[in-house]
Amino acid sequence: MRLFLAFFIIILSNILNAPAMAQSLIRDAEIENTIRGYSDPIFTAAGLNPKDVQIYIVNDKSLNAFVTDGQKMFLNTGIILEAKAPNQLKGVIAHETGHIAGGHLARSTQAERAAMVPAYISIALGIAAIAAGAPDAGAALLASSQQFALLSFFTYTRIQEASADQAALQYLEKTHQSGQGLVDFFEKFRYNEVMSDARKEPYFRSHPLSGDRILALQSKLSKSDYANTKDTQDEIDQFKMIQAKIFGFVSTSEQTYLKYNYRDNSKPSLYARSIAFYRAPDLQMAVSTLNKLLVQEPNNPYFNELMGQILFENSKSKDAISYYEKATQLAPKESLLYVGLARAYIAQNDKIYYEKADIALKSAIRFEPENSFAWNQLAIVADRQGKAGLARLATAEEAFTLGDFARANRFSQVAMKNLERKTPEWQRASDIRVITDPIVAKMVRKGNYN
Q1: Which among 436, 388, 435, 378 has a CA at the least distance from the CA of 414?
Q2: pLDDT digits (tens, 9 = 90+) for 360-392
Q3: Is 38 domain-assigned?
Q4: Cβ contact 37:44 at 8 Å
Q5: Which of 1, 243, 392, 396 has the most crowded Cβ, counting Cβ within 10 A?
């Protein structure tokens, strides 16, 4: 009986956790800033602190968005590219926010346990039937136990989905935005209802869609004062730019040239093609195409950042510096821009530039303390400056942000030995050690630490 129970629990668990498969993440200041502009007002309307909600962009062309424990929201590049307007993406974000604010993840565990009760009963009856000499009837009961569990659980998820839908419309209403985008998005993919799970988009496997849900949304939307509110032209233009940027980076150069062909000299087309040329690689065409955008918008921080990136990654790090510097001046609170600038400084292998890199990286960390790569680069800078204690502290910080507590513990101890006692840096190393000591001790007891 234990074998059957484990088998069906594994099946159900796999279905529930399917969206959380490991994928690579994309970091980009422009994309993150644009999406934050959409999401933060929605988070506030939901009673959440925007700073507590982490948004991750997943490099995956399939249609999906989901949330996990700890107020983490994941958006696939596919769902951003598939949205026809900012309002559609806002609708999806609002829906996922409904799951976070409604505490649906915590309740799902309870629902999973409850869903297994009829399965347990069916399994027990099946085994009893087999023992009583009715193997066919017993086998049928055992085979149906999974269905009982899934039917029970999906009844609960349908309630969750409907709740998140209604919450999404409330949040959009509070922020004076239309919920029409969410309705349009669902309408567009209504065909997923009739598809097998294997052919459905991942989003609609984890968010079962039905005509009743759409009708309920339309009914509530019809009573909204903001049902006909449209995205502003600036929002539409910026959305097209981030779509072009994503497409250029995640698609092949050939695909980009087809979608954004040379006859189209709009800003999104030039943006996508400059990225495609850079990835081809064709440095001359990448620079000349991007320069057309910089002529139109010389003070666009993200155009300057991209030029810096193109030059840096084509062994022209010194030429990249001025573009990165301008980008940080134009967007002085964007952590990722400072990291790019610091990398260009580090590449000069010069004492003066190491000092500049140190300043840039500390600016990056000030705006994003959990930027592990910034800590990694700061460790390199400190090492090259002969500051062993600070280098080990930066490595401890990097490990700590990544959740590698054993490594953080080791390097914090080394840092303490190389730092002057009672200084802020020594105290920080001591804090990391104090926090990680009990974690490491627990790992040792479980035999998970060498």
Answers
A1: 388
A2: 999 999 999 999 999 999 999 999 999 999 999
A3: yes
A4: no
A5: 396
